[in-house]
Amino acid sequence: MAQPKIALIGGGQIGGTLALLAGLKELGNVVLFDIVEGLPQGKTLDLAQGGAVEGYNAHLSGTNSYEGIAGADVVIVTAGVPRKPGMSRDDLLSINLKVMAAVGEGIKTYAPNAFVICITNPLDAMVWALRQFANHPAEKIVGMAGVLDSARFRHFLSEEFKVSKEDVTAFVLGGHGDTMVPMPRFSTVAGIPLPELVKMGWTTQEKLDQIIQRTRDGGAEIVGLLKTGSAFYAPASSAIQMAESYLKDQKRVLPVAAYVDGPYGIKDLYVGVPAVIGENGVERIVELQLTAEEKAALDKSAGAVQGLIEACKKMDPRL
Ligand code: TXD
Fold first, then answer.
1. Does the model's pTM come out above 0.95?
2. ∠ CA(37), CA(235), CA(247), 5° rounding?
3. What pLDDT, on the 0 to 100 scale, is given for residue 254?
4. Among 59, 68, 186, 281, which residue is least crowded by beta carbons within 10 Å?
């Protein structure tokens, strides 16, 4: 049977890691695209040789031409520039918006049926713009941020409680940025919500607040340490989980940046919400009953995303 085709647009730190994970997990054949000549060809040749040792048989190839992504089932976009220390995600806006215009054109021409996962920052605005440029159906294009943000939250919680990360679930709503909304009520250890764990004496509210802040700053903490780029291993794992749910019709309930037009009172925005990802892409957006405080935090976050989208519209008359 024909293997699914996975096109990775952007062959940098995340793109290379995505190719490795797609190979190790036998998700399909991989085409890595980048504008830098030799980079995607070199990385995929290296990875293909690793297949002889690791035992994966996926076909991996690199290209500098959009024709190479023709007929892709999944497209994962990391093209653009990452943050440098001191730079906010929003500083990236003008550079990466131009990149999204080119990538959108490529997807429209060569991969109109693909499930598209955008990772490029500032995430929520870039996925909104990419959808416009690609003229792609809303349920077939999402942004990756919530899986990563909740993975960070789960990691810090598992360290605090000294329990397996597997038994920690965590929910994060809203935009990927300083206004993200971690949701303690819907985050649990083996089904026990965090507020209960505070009552049970497993942690204190103060400690929990610190963990929430560290989660919000999770990306910046890594940028500060690396100095020459941003996180890439966990972001790649997160996007691969989303791609796998689509390709295998797993119907995982994952926090993703989805097109929201109605739920949560939000109109025409990409923002982080829990969603069911299956063979049709976003099959359902889960609308939680929020408290007034949670709703206010989500509205603030959605407002920040809206502001970035307005800035994009001013920069590019096609939007
Ligand atoms: O949670 C999240 N969404 C994120 C997002 C978590 C971590 C990092 N996040 C963002 O992903 C980050 O801020 C960047 O915007 C992207 C990609 O991060 P990565 O670390 O992979 O960046 P690299 O290593 O600089 O790779 C980017 C590649 C590089 O090889 C460029 O040559 C290429 O993108 N590039 C392009 N490819 C195709 N087409 C165009 N126009 C282009 N411009 C640059």
1. yes
2. 85
3. 97
4. 59
Tokens standing for residue 317: 């008359």
Going from the Cα of 32 to the center of ligand 1, the distance in angstroms, rounded, reads: 13
- Domains 5-144 and 146-311 alike in fold: no
Residue 262 DSSP class = B
- Cα 32 to Cα 63: distance, rounded to the nearest angstrom: 6
Fold of 5-144: Rossmann fold (3.40.50)
pLDDT digits (tens, 9 = 90+) for 262-272: 999 999 999 99
Contacts 24+ apart (CB under 8 A), 286-295: 286/253, 287/263, 288/173, 288/183, 288/186, 290/264, 291/185, 294/173, 294/181, 294/183, 294/185, 295/264
Q: What is the pLDDT of residues 150-174, one digit of tens each?
A: 999 999 999 999 999 999 999 899 9
User: For the chain, what is the mean pLDDT?
Assistant: 95
* Domain assignments of the chain as residue spans, ordered by start: 5-144, 146-311
Q: Which residues line ligand 1 (CB under 6 A)?
A: 9-15, 34-36, 39, 78-83, 92, 96, 99, 102, 119-121, 123, 144-145, 148, 176, 229-232, 235
Query: Could you say which DSSP state residue 249 is in?
Result: T
Interface confidence: ipTM more than 0.95: yes
- What is the identity of the amino acid at 189? V
C-alpha 267 – ligand 1 centre gap (Å): 28
Token pair, residue 286, equals 């889960």
Residue type at position 38: G
Name the residue of 21, 31, 81, 144 to mutate for ligand 1: max ligand atoms within 8 A of Cβ. 81
Task: Inform me whether the pLDDT recorded for 87 exceeds 90.
Answer: no
CATH number of 146-311: 3.90.110.10
Q: Please give the Cα distance from 7 to 92 (Å, whole number).
A: 23
**Residues known to be catalytic:** 176
For residue 85, pLDDT beyond 80? no
